[in-house]
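Annotated sample (chain length 224).
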Amino acid sequence: MGKRVAVVLAGCGVYDGSEIHEASAVLVHLSREGAQAEIYAPNVDQMHVVDHVKGQPTQEKRNVLVESARIARGNIKDLAKVDVTGLDALIIPGGFGVAKNLSTWATQGKNCIISKEVEDVLKAFHAAKKPIGLCCISPVLAAKTFPGCELTMGHDTECEKWPYAKTAETMKELGCKHVNKHVTEVHVDVKNKLVTTSAFMCNAPIHEIYDGIGKMVKEVVRLA
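Output written by the structure step:
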């Protein structure tokens, strides 16, 4: 019997939801590891909707659960109904939806608030000593929920390859240990059973991002 892994989505699209390539990579690699993905999303309105052609917000309203169902091919549940006892691990892909719909990171940075549903799920998996995998921007959820945890968001020196490196510095300000890792690498916080990788925090070829997420998934399943 394969491991059952909860995958929490934040909408559909990099600028206002889950990063689709990251979410897809997680699902492909879980399948490769013989694990069963159970997909969840909160039944709430998105912070806003972004036109992905123009990169500009629109007046449209969309629901996080409804939009996430696009990635899940309709096979999705309300995050409020998650039962940690029947699951072996948790993975949350990145995308701006994490910073807009699962938390207020986009507007408040290190002073942000994590959605209560998301925080409760993170704490439940952590209390049950079940592994949590996070990539791209989603490690900020761990930084706020598990003070002093270890994680990676790639590198902490900003350059063309690492355009979002200041986020790594913010992790340190929150009291976390940030570990520099290449996009194809992961960091494992053994104490907290936390596995992180940088994904699109790095300006890298998509296959390298895919490979890094694969290592994250493999390690999460191994720890489960």
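Annotation: The longest helix spans residues 206-223.
Annotation: The chain is about 35% helix and 15% strand.
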